[in-house]
Design the sequence.
């Protein structure tokens, strides 16, 4: 399991090859932006991520206007046209004893471009839709996780004492559970609840994407909370905070105007790394049937659909697998780029 | 029994509560023959080691009076014997009950309540001790004494004194079994047309009287041609020849061919296929994964055997929960279900046969019937989506949420997904709920969970119509708020129940007449549509090129000991 450590060095330092004159008089955010746009690899990865993101969001366009298919409806007895001939989407084995049936392979045409799955659905369209769900869950859960961790870390680091002890012990408790075990336990309980989940007037259908989103967000809060809390504790002791207190500044003002801007860069650096991690977690949970619920698709569920076709139709699993690899790679490189841009000597690394 | 008998302890605990009086008959039973089997009984080259492979050891206790898995039963039938047994043969012959440890099958007296069996002389257990009448009585006492024999209260409670044994198992002494020399007499509380069937399964296989009355870690001495040498649940089972065995009936217990039968655990079905293809194993217990069927069917066709099973795969619709408390909705789903598509998910038309009814083909009481097909006929031909949509409109249930419950197994999940898609097409909001196989079966039985549409399947325990109709859809097999309630649809129709009870009574004296009544019951059940009966599956055996003399019994499947290994 990945965990993050951040050793802050708040002073603005020069990046390799950067002159003092170039950054003189500029705000830290402008300096970071300037550094980031000069990092070609990070820009390329940002572009790759955006392509994947936009492509996934255009899934309905692909499915309805290009592939002309509904990727959520079984089409076991349907047909398609290949090389001018109408063929069955799920074909009975013809040779030998004729046992088994096999989905159509890649047609390299708009319809069933990389073939069908066991339900006769267009795999390419499902990969697009899967990307939409995976990215939505990954991004939203990472954002929720980071915001919650940020808020808790501000409270714990600012007030210290009992507040810090209680919050930190709760975080330790969550951290003590292996991430997947905790996520699987939560998912098993929440997904099997008859009638969905009810919190007062709010009812969440157990097949809703919000279920895996919240589960994933919760299990990763301690991983973001810890480094930010450490930074808040450090900033809390600075002279300008003491000065603010002596001048009668309110706690809210101190937290949000004086401390938050100084720890925000840590959260921003962690965000892309968290998105990569949450996408992987979502895929793993969906692969285990406890994330995105069928007939909805995510990259994890599409890989799972292809598991029983590895010998005959390997592309069903390989394509969503490659999409996960590319997305996580892009986000990790992007995260490194953001880190370097915000502070070239800050040491953010992922411990496995 | 549920698929591969696994996890049925809970079901049969429930059956203890089912009203007795199931009808049907074993005498007229029949089963489909093999499609690709060779088939001679007995004979074959002796010697060698038959190496079989499986994913895991048989689930549950290995005690023969507790275990309820096909995997262990296939071995127990060659290490132990009952007073009577199913003939070791393929095809219809394999459903006949023949005398085993008993010299003959007696005619019951006292209105079907008294059965006297005379033991064959000279039979010894594998530990050298002679078989006596006391062993028989002790065996039946032990079924109750052991405490967790799954069907003590449902199958054997018909023996006089069983009620007291169920109340105080530790001191069980069945007054209904009397021993007089080599004669053993059973006194029943009421006539039971399936009594001989119940004596023919491993729960009733005779054990030495000295067998301790607690769960054993390896089956004890038996009278069959083999005996259990090793039972290591994480590694392997080893059966070796019983030195005290002398063949007394080639029909009931023929001597085996291999010197040893070994079953190794820990291989995935994928790996099992590879091992058998490469002749590193002689037979795989698990069914080959769908992805390997193509190569098996072409490259290894001469080593593959496919046999129809007396089993039905179905989706149970909860008749007490909307929208399925409406008959029109249940019938609509039946009209809409494309059984050809469902057969494709299972593996294609060579591996399953579409059906609309509860009883499987070639089963007592089976008369083909299908009211849910596009072109009216006894045989299903195509779905009628227009009719289905019309019924849904009439029901006024469109737009309701429906949860389709299934297991996470590939095929089961595929079937569930198909129904999600179908229900959405009919205007419902359907979701899939896929649970681990170990959890799903108890979960869908419990009415507390308000399961709406649930995947399940049923394989015969023995050839009698009541084994399907009474157990799966009888009023007595629905137990509210219990994990052991095999009537998943919660269906209870008093008129049909009366007819089933009547069939049970008729079966005592007139099995043929009873089967005609069971056929009517089957059709009426189908009309009431508590299920979407999907198809009747077939079974695939894959053998190494070393194996000859393959035989498939409809009761015990591949007869391991009757095959030879080069």
Sequence:
């Amino acid at each position: 399991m990945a965990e993050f450590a951040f050793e802050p060095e708040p002073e603005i330092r020069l990046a390799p090859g950067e002159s003092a004159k170039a950054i003189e008089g500029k705000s830290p955010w402008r300096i970071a932006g300037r550094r980031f746009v000069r990092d070609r690899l990070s820009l390329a990865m940002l572009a790759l991520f955006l392509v994947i993101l936009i492509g996934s969001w255009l899934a309905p366009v692909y499915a309805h206007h290009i592939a002309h298919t509904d990727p959520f409806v079984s089409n076991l007895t349907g047909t398609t046209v290949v090389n001018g001939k109408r063929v069955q989407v799920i074909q009975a084995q013809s040779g030998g004893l004729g046992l088994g049936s096999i989905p159509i392979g890649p047609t390299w045409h708009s319809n069933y471009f990389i073939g069908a799955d066991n339900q006769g659905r267009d795999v390419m369209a499902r990969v697009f839709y899967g990307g939409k769900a995976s990215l939505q869950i990954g991004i939203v859960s990472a954002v929720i996780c980071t915001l919650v961790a940020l808020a808790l870390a501000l409270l714990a680091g600012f007030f210290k004492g009992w507040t810090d002890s209680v919050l930190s012990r709760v975080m330790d408790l969550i951290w003590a559970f292996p991430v997947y075990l905790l996520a699987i336990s939560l998912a098993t309980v929440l997904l099997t609840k008859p009638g969905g989940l009810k919190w007062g007037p709010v009812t969440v259908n157990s097949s809703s994407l919000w279920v895996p989103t919240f589960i994933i967000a919760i299990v990763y809060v301690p991983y973001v909370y810890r480094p930010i809390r450490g930074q808040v504790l450090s900033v809390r002791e600075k002279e300008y905070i003491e000065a603010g207190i002596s001048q009668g500044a309110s706690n809210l003002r101190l937290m949000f105007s004086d401390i938050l801007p100084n720890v925000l860069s840590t959260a921003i650096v962690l965000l892309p790394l968290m998105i990569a991690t949450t996408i992987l977690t979502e895929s793993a949970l969906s692969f285990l049937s406890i994330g995105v619920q069928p007939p909805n698709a995510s990259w994890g569920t599409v890989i799972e659909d292809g598991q029983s076709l590895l010998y005959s139709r390997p592309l069903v699993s390989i394509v969503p697998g490659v999409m996960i690899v590319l997305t996580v790679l892009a986000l990790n490189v992007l995260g490194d780029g953001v880190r370097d841009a915000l502070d070239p000597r800050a040491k953010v690394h992922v411990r496995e | 029994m549920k698929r591969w008998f696994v996890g049925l302890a809970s079901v049969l605990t429930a059956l203890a509560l089912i009203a007795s009086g199931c009808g049907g008959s074993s005498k007229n039973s029949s089963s489909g023959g093999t499609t690709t089997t060779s088939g001679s009984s007995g004979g074959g080259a002796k010697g060698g080691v038959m190496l079989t492979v499986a994913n895991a050891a048989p689930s549950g206790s290995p005690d023969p009076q507790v275990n309820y898995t096909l995997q262990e039963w296939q071995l127990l039938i060659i290490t132990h014997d009952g007073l009577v047994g199913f003939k070791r043969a393929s095809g219809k012959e394999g459903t006949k009950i023949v005398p085993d440890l008993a010299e003959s099958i007696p005619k019951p007296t006292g209105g079907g309540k008294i059965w006297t069996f005379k033991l064959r002389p000279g039979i010894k257990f594998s530990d050298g001790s002679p078989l006596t009448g006391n062993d028989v009585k002790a065996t039946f006492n032990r079924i109750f004494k052991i405490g967790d024999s799954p069907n003590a209260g449902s199958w054997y409670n018909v023996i006089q004194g069983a009620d007291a044994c169920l109340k105080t198992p530790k001191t069980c002494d069945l007054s209904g079994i009397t021993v007089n020399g080599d004669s053993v007499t059973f006194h029943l509380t009421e006539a039971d047309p399936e009594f001989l069937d119940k004596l023919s399964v491993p729960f009733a296989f005779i054990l030495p009287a000295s067998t301790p009355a607690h769960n054993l870690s390896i089956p004890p001495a038996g009278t069959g041609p083999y005996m259990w040498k090793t039972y290591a649940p994480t590694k392997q089972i080893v059966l070796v020849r019983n030195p005290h065995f002398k063949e007394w009936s080639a029909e009931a217990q023929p001597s085996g061919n291999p010197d040893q039968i070994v079953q190794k655990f820990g291989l995935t079905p994928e790996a099992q296929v590879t091992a058998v293809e490469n002749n590193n194993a002689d037979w795989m217990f698990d069914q080959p994964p769908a992805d390997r069927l193509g190569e098996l069917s072409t490259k290894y066709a001469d080593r593959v055997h496919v046999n129809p099973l007396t089993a039905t795969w179905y989706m149970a619709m909860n008749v007490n929960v909307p929208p399925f408390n409406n008959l029109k909705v249940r019938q609509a789903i039946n009209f809409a279900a494309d059984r050809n598509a469902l057969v494709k998910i299972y593996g294609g038309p060579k591996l399953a046969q579409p059906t609309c009814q509860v009883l499987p083909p070639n089963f007592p009481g089976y008369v083909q019937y299908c009211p849910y097909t596009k072109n009216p006929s006894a045989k299903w031909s195509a779905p009628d989506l227009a009719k289905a949509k019309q019924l849904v409109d009439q029901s006024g249930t469109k737009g309701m949420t429906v949860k389709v419950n299934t297991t996470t197994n590939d095929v089961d999940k595929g079937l569930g997904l198909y129904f999600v898609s179908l229900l959405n097409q009919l205007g419902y909001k359907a979701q899939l709920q896929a649970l681990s196989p170990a959890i799903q079966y108890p979960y869908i039985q419990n009415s507390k969970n308000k399961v709406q549409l649930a995947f399940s399947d049923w394989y015969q325990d023995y050839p009698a119509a009541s084994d399907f109709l009474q157990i799966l859809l009888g009023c007595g097999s629905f137990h509210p708020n219990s994990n052991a309630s095999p009537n998943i649809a919660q269906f209870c129709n008093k008129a049909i129940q009366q007819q089933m009870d009547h069939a049970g009574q008729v079966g005592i004296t007139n099995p043929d007449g009873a089967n005609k009544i069971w056929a009517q019951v089957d059709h009426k059940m189908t009309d009431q549509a508590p299920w979407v009966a999907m198809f009747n599956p077939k079974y695939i055996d894959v053998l190494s090129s070393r194996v000859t003399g393959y035989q498939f019994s409809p009761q015990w499947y591949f007869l391991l000991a009757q095959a030879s290994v080069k």
In short: Chain B touches chain A through 47 residues (CB under 8 Å).
